[in-house]
Amino acid sequence: MTKLTGSCLCGAVTFEVENEFQNFQLCHCSQCQKTTGSAHASNLFTGPKNIEWHSGVEAIVRFDLKGRGISNSFCSKCGSRVPYLSRSGETLVVPAGSLDGKPSVSPKANIFWPERAHWYDEAVLAEHYDRYIE
Ligand SMILES: [Zn+2]
Ligand SMILES: [Zn+2]
């Protein structure tokens, strides 16, 4: 079994996860748009024991929204999302963007699709560049 390293943007939070994921979903719900500030969350799912924290656990802040079961866990210094346990405690949710390498599974589903960002259909058709443009 191989491992993938991961971190937040500022580098305070670092960890390693087993590269053995059961699922990979892109969640387009309106709550995930808020927590990510973007079009969707990119969530990998694995077992709770498959993570080893290397640093920065004390910098992690968790927020649990009442209602739909949305949670957000992030570095208090830079705001990057980091892995967290589902409320049942049975699943570890790993934000794919927090990982440095390629996960063992590719995205399987776009969930809550009807709630997708108003601009998403156009976004996937936009031109591609290898740099910032004005
Ligand atoms: Zn950070
Ligand atoms: Zn969502």
Detailed description of the structure:
About 10% of the residues lie in helices and about 35% in strands. It is mainly beta and about 130 residues long. The protein has a single domain (about 5-125), classed as Metal Binding Protein, Guanine Nucleotide Exchange Factor, Chain A, CATH 2.170.150. The strands form three sheets. The protein has a five-stranded mixed beta sheet. β8 and β9 form a beta hairpin. The longest helix has 7 residues, at about 30-35. The radius of gyration is 15 Å and the shape is globular. The termini are far apart. The mean pLDDT is about 95. Bound molecules: zinc ion (ZN) (2 copies). One zinc ion binds next to α1.
